[in-house]
Amino acid sequence: MNCMKQPALFLASPLLLLGLSLLLAGCGADEIPASTEPREALLETVEILSPVTLPGSITALGEVVPDHRVEAASRLSAYIEAIPKKEGDSIKAGDVVAQLDSRDVEAAVRTASAKVSAARAAAKDAALDHEKFSALYHEGLVSENDWRKITLKNEAARSDLKEAEAMLAAAKAQLAYTTVRSPIDGRVARVLKREGDLALPGLSIVVVDSETNPKVEFSIPQNQRAEIQTGTRALVRMDGESAEFEGTIERTTESADRISRTTLARIAFSGEERTKAEARLKPGMYVRVEVKRSSSADASPWVPESVLTTRGGLEGAFVLEEGKAKFRWLRTGKRLGGMVEILAGLQGRESLINQPSGNLRDGSPVKVEKRSSARGDAVEAVEGDQK
């Protein structure tokens, strides 16, 4: 019985295999047209913007410097007894900034005063003798030799008196020098000595800066010096503050620093800007300086922020090339008024796709809906920030 069933199984197997193969062939025939038939590419409608070139500028870190700086020093050698002013204190012309030990000088004054008293008495006595012998000489009672001696004694006494008075005046002047005073109104910038130190002639004790008419000094590359001339307008800003001060280049140095290859420029303020600067800018402060360049031939292009997109964590933009969107990596700079400075990545005045969608890919075909330049209001905002 079992032997009779086995041939039936062997005969059914080829038929089953044939059916399965036909079924698989039918399925494959249905899928081939779907994979090989080309689909119609979807065109994305885009707006095209052109970058704009704005006047370039030179930015630098500047320092507020006083219009007048005085280093108050001693004119004699003496120990410092007191320095009544501290760094940052306001000061008026004539205020004491250092008091020196005056005991030695006071002794010299007393000595000189004594010499003046003695010389004055001797001169008075010599003058009386001269007057008395003058009458006798004219009456012929005194010889010519005696008269000559009396006259010389009187002149010597008067000369000694003048010398003693000069020594007293010098001693009193030295006494005045023991009190060091500020010659200007301003603020104590630095205290270089301490009480008990030895003050030496010509060595500064206290530095005083004037607070009127402050200036700003900054360094510029030597190759850009020709673009910054006297009278060029400059903007000064303080970090963390919106206030700005407008000044002009007062002067630039002719020679450059041998190490940094930079030259020094100074900004001055006038009118209302000077009043504003005097109220806010103090010597020693650091500020940001921006000066418009006279040439914009090598100025960087600016584009609206709306053309930027991020791919892989880096910023870039899509440009239009032969009807397709091509992605470009960009190196950006300053951002002002909704505009972005492009430092690298663009080649000339290329067509940029504004507000690219998330579906846009490198090489995607696009259809141009509108062409325009960068937004005028954004450009005005950038130029306003650079003024």
Automatic annotation (TrEMBL):
Keyword Signal: yes
InterPro entries assigned: Beta-barrel_RND_2, MdtA-like_BSH, RND_pump_MFP
Comp. bias intervals (Basic and acidic residues): 367-387
Keywords on record: Signal
Domain CusB-like beta-barrel positions: 216-294
Keyword Cytoplasm appears in the UniProt entry: no
Domain Multidrug resistance protein MdtA-like barrel-sandwich hybrid intervals: 70-200
GO terms, molecular function: efflux transmembrane transporter activity
Gene Ontology CC entries for this record: efflux pump complex
Signal peptide: 1-25
Region Disordered, annotated ranges: 354-387
Family listed: Belongs to the membrane fusion protein (MFP) (TC 8.A.1) family.
Name this protein carries in UniProt: Efflux RND transporter periplasmic adaptor subunit
Natural source organism: Sutterella seckii
